[in-house]
Write a structure and sequence with these properties.
disordered C terminus; mainly alpha; Tetracycline Repressor, domain 2; about 210 residues
């Protein structure tokens, strides 16, 4: 029998177990019995720490929100690093997070597919809003510092940045492997960068 843990410690275990299982199984198919088996407690014991399975997924989204944004903010605020280099670092840090916690994108994709507005979906949308704000800020600074074209459409650039991440993740989920995602991410970001610089180069050539 496992020793008793404080509620917050057991909750952290259950969240970690949920994300571990979500890496290879649809979150909707994961039962409280599955979670109990992973951490070695009874199914009834799960409900001593969470009121429902939804509450566990809410806690998982909250944890992912805080942990991902903390990691990305650290990359974005490296001293003596240009805004665009920070953007590249954020892109790659996000990919590393996906490799480390593949259950997170599975959970996010599932919730965003629901047509109705749920509490889980709202939490995912809050995460996406904070994420967009970070990317928008870095792109705006990069344009201000003349790292990218002054004509760059920042709103479209944010959409493309997020879409590139989502595309890489979805491709990996379809193939069932994250082995090549980091190398692919480097290539994808180089293409993204070239697009933001292309109009600047074109404009400079036209003005001659």
């Amino acid at each position: 029998m496992r020793p008793k843990l404080k509620t917050e410690d057991r909750q952290a275990e259950l969240v970690a177990a949920a994300l571990l299982l979500a890496a290879t199984k649809s979150p909707s198919e994961i039962t409280t019995g599955d979670l109990a088996n992973v951490i070695g407690i009874t199914q009834g014991g799960v409900f001593k720490h969470f009121d429902s399975k939804e509450a566990i997924w809410l806690a998982a989204i909250e944890w992912a929100h805080q942990d991902l944004m903390k990691k990305l903010m650290l990359e974005a605020k490296v001293r003596n690093q240009t805004a665009f280099k920070s953007l590249r670092a954020v892109f790659m840090a996000h990919i590393s997070f996906v490799q480390q916690y593949p259950g997170v994108p599975r959970l996010i994709v599932q919730e965003l597919q629901h047509p109705e507005q749920t509490l889980l979906k709202e939490r995912v949308q809050l995460l996406m809003a904070d994420y967009r704000q970070l990317i928008s800020g870095l792109l705006a600074q990069a344009r201000k510092d003349a790292e990218i074209s002054p004509e760059a459409d920042l709103q479209a650039a944010v959409v493309l940045f997020i879409g590139a991440i989502q595309g890489l993740v979805m491709q990996s989920l379809i193939t069932g492997s994250l082995e090549k995602i980091k190398q692919q991410a480097k290539t994808v970001f180089s293409i993204y960068e070239a697009g933001l610089l292309a109009s600047s180069v074109k404009k400079a050539g036209t003005s001659k």
